Known about the structure:
Strand 11 (147-153) and strand 12 (161-165) form a beta hairpin. The protein has a twelve-stranded antiparallel beta barrel with strand order 1-2-3-4-5-6-7-8-9-10-11-12. By secondary structure, it is mostly beta strands. The N and C termini lie far apart (33 Å). The chain is built from three helices and twelve strands; from the N terminus they run βββββββαββαβββα.
Amino acid sequence: MSTGLTHRVFTARRSFFSFLGPEFRFFAPDGSLALFVKQKAFKLKEEITAFRDEGRSQPMLRIQARSILDVRATYDVTDATTGERIGSCKRQGFASLVRDTWEIKSADDTVIGTLAEDSLMLALVRRFLLKAWLPQGFTLTAPDGRKLGKLQQRFNPFVIVYDADFGPEGEGAVDTRLATAATVLLLAIEGRQG
């Protein structure tokens, strides 16, 4: 696994303001920078590269939409250092307009988990009443119902910050790179709704 993407517990933060596209920073538990993303603005077909450093000299992950402007878009995730296809994340279309839901798939397109917003009721209250005043929570669940990880947004009406915990490495665990890519997509795609 690529260095810099070995943390299964991290904090992800979307910058409050950045010129020509948002920036995201992922921090290791010790506070050090683990990943940096500068999303390009005005792209019809989403393509995101995550880097090990803010100087963008060490690409780590590539996340690329398969199609243009699709509410059920699938994003392929590739290791930028090896070219290995890691898997994909598929947004659940119109259902995600009410409750953010993503399918997480392995390299062979087998569904290995679903990343879903905490509850339908909270999702509706968040969208129609409280907006940024009610933080989002997401649970990553395996097809057999096992909990594989959790993302919890901190209360902050100005900056999106998620605390992530994708549990211990081992059999049945989601690849850290794929979990990281799913978090990037939440910051990039779902972050536009707030």
